[in-house]
Amino acid sequence: MNRSATELHLPQAKRLSRRVARATAILFAAMAVLLPATSRAEGTAPLLAYGARVAGDDARTRLVIEFDRNPEYSIHYVANPVRVIIDLPETSFGLKPESLEPRGLFDAIRYGGMGAGASRLVLSAKGPTEVTHAEVKPEEDGKGFRLVIDAERIDQARFDKLLSDQQWTGTVSAAKTGRPALAPAKASGAFVVAVDAGHGGIDTGAIGSVTKTEEKHVTLAFARDLVATLNREAGIEAFLTRRGDEFLSLPQRVQIARQGGANLFISVHADTLKQKDIRGATVYTISDKASDHLAANLAARENLSDEIAGIPLESEPAEVADILIDLTRRETQAFSVNLARSVVSSFEGQIKLINNPHRHAGFRVLQAPDVPSILLELGFLSNMEDEKQLLDPEWRKKVSQLLAVAVRRYRQTAVANGG
């Protein structure tokens, strides 16, 4: 490119508007089928799941979950890999982790919220599997109900028929209506930053090596601090893509940022690595080719968020992919790189950075066609020192302030060059 990112930023929105309009329309159409419903009826208390057990072998497996009230449920199937999806109304899971230790047909069992009004269990199977019997039974003492699920191994042909016969697109059937909460309206002339707390709800993210803290709580705590800090900056407005412990699909996060008129998108994460001695912050931008193996592996894990939640993965139409890649390469990626460099510069000498702190890979959550975007790895929950810092409110405050400095510099340069 002959022009720098800062020369292109603010006026670029006008120049791109016509080119992006068609891409955006197609993008929203592609995302619509992936968006889970998120609202629940007012005044309805969540179910309580207070006990569970799993028993069986590689041929048959039984799952039993105990609830305080009669649960409505629905069962669906997803392929590649095989998963059994059990959708429920909003549920508080007061379960001991060992009570749903995977065994028999299942090699992973996850559960959690899918947005206000709905929850989900995802049973990852070792091969083609069918639920042959499911029913709710009252407890003998009359003080609760048991959901009993019996599953059996089946052949591929039978599983393919289950997939073709079901009328399901991946949405949450337990929640009756609704779309993701819209971001606040952009004030006239404001420079808007969308702060995305990674993971949430059923998708816990990484787990701390010492405290067993879930990444979704670490990222939300930091994101709240960052939004509060940014909102104290003159001329800057910041908002959260998720406000609580709720699941948002990757396309949904992008949609919320764009609907809020975001000028910047910052996605916050805290991953784990097998190499526990590696620590420090990293800033990632999007690219169709990863800068290194670490970046490639991280992107692959982060891109599995929707799959973990039981959402069927569907590729965008080729036309959407082509447009997104073109726009990212030619305009938006340059702005993202400029922002990443500003963040690294602000962090240097102040907080621990990983070697080569600006890296790039194909992160799906950074695919907004017209919003400069970065993914910030605050540190690694697999490292004892990083984990301690990530849980320290004072450290979070310091990093939030440094990020605010980086955003302020980026904005000032962009305004100075673009009017």
Explain how this protein is built.
The protein has 419 residues and is an alpha/beta fold. It has two domains: 5-35 and 179-418, Aminopeptidase (3-Layer(aba) Sandwich), CATH 3.40.630; 47-165, Immunoglobulin-like (Sandwich), CATH 2.60.40. Helices cover 34% and strands 25% of the residues. It has helices at 5-32, 156-165, 215-230, 250-259, 293-302, 305-308, 318-347, 384-390, 393-418; strands at 47-56, 60-67, 74-78, 83-89, 91-93, 106-113, 118-125, 129-138, 145-153, 191-197, 236-240, 264-269, 281-286, 353-361, 373-377. Helix 1 packs across helix 7 and helix 1 packs across helix 9. The longest helix is centred in the C-terminal third of the chain and has 30 residues, at 318-347. The model is unreliable at 1-43, 173-179 and 315-320 (pLDDT under 50). This is N-acetylmuramoyl-L-alanine amidase. Pfam families: Amidase_3, AMIN. It catalyses: Hydrolyzes the link between N-acetylmuramoyl residues and L-amino acid residues in certain cell-wall glycopeptides.
